[in-house]
Structures are given as C-alpha cells and as structure tokens.
Amino acid sequence: MTQIALFSSGNGTNAENIAKYFDKNTQIEVSLLVSNDQNAYVHQRAKALNIPSYSFSKNEIMEGSQLLRLLSDYSIDYIILAGFLLKVPDTLLEKYPNRIINIHPALLPKYGGKGMYGDRVHKKVIEMGDTKSGITIHYVNDKYDEGEIIFQSSCDILPQDTYEDVSKKVHKLEYAHFPRVIENVILGNR
Length: 190
Ligand code: GAR
Hints:
The protein has a seven-stranded mixed beta sheet. The protein folds into two domains: 1-97, Formyl transferase, N-terminal domain (Rossmann fold), CATH 3.40.50; 104-176, Formyl transferase, N-terminal domain (Rossmann fold, 3-Layer(aba) Sandwich), CATH 3.40.50. It is α/β, with parallel strands linked by helices. It is built from seven helices and seven strands. The two termini are 19 Å apart. Helix 1 (13-22) packs parallel to helix 7 (163-187) and helix 6 packs across helix 7 (163-187).
C-alpha cells in the first residue's frame, strides 16, 4: 500500500476530493493531513473523513525535523500539495525526490511564483484579459511552481467572467483530474 499525505493550508476541497477518490482503494491510501494553520477548515474535513490531521507553524515546517518524523511515523511515500501555500523546505525535497506533487490553479509558467495562489491568480488572469486559464500539476522542486510539469488542462474564460467564475471553473478541473493524475503517477502509468 502506498501511503500519501495531503498538505493543505485552507478550505481543503481538493484534499477532501482526493481522500474520497482513494477511499477503499487497495493500492493507495490517504493516511495523513498536514496544515500550516490549525484553524484551517480542512481539519474539519479530515475529521469527518477519519484522517488524522496535524498543524505545524511556518517555522516548524521550515525547520522540518518534527514534520519529517511525523511523515516517517506514517510511512508516507508521497506528499500531495492541495492548496498548500508555503514553500516546501529542502529537507523535505531531499527526503522525497520526485515524490512531492503540487497543483497550481493556472497554466504555468503563467501566474506562478511566490505570492501567486488561489484567488490572487484568478484576479490576475482577469486583469490580463486572458481567454483561457486552467490547472497545472507538477513535481515540486526548490523553486516556486517551476518543477517538471506532469499534466495541464484548460478552460475558457468568457468576457463577462469574474474571478469567482474562473475559480469555479478551475476547481472543477482540479476535482476532475487531480486524483486520477496522482494515481497514474504513483502507479507509474504516466
Ligand atoms: C486550489 O485551487 C489550488 O490549486 C490552489 O489553492 C486552491 C485551494 O483550494 N493552490 C495554489 O494556489 C498553490 N499555489 P481548496 O482548499 O478548496 O482545495
């Protein structure tokens, strides 16, 4: 059984969607949720799904030792960043080479980098008058949003769309593709 840990900083709809997708899967199990915010709503989702969830401060995450111990206690093989807004520390990258996967709510290399997350990305897409946006699923390296791209999918943006509309379309793509892409990577069928 491959064990995965989900990292989420906020609402956690992707985390919940992934956990539900792998519920009863015989090869892949979501065994842990990690957040950098103890008040994040994702903890309530984890509780309802019977997934143990933990919080670490930004400093604890950057320092890494407690987090690495926790991941090792749960025999974690892959880390999935599902709306996780902090940079992944080098200690974690070294321990999990090509085993940390992120989803970004835009078509990278557009609108990536530090400070580009969630609605900020969608607002920028509207501001720039783009006619398409989408999702990018990629391996995590030591630079924000620059790891090797695994999968992208796009959606149209209509002239009247607000950033909320774009957010809805992008979330829809995330729910449809992210779990399956994770499964394919883990099972080696890319
Ligand atoms: C998702 O749209 C995800 O792509 C984005 O945060 C949202 C979290 O939503 N991630 C980033 O912006 C990372 N740079 P959720 O908490 O409802 O899953």
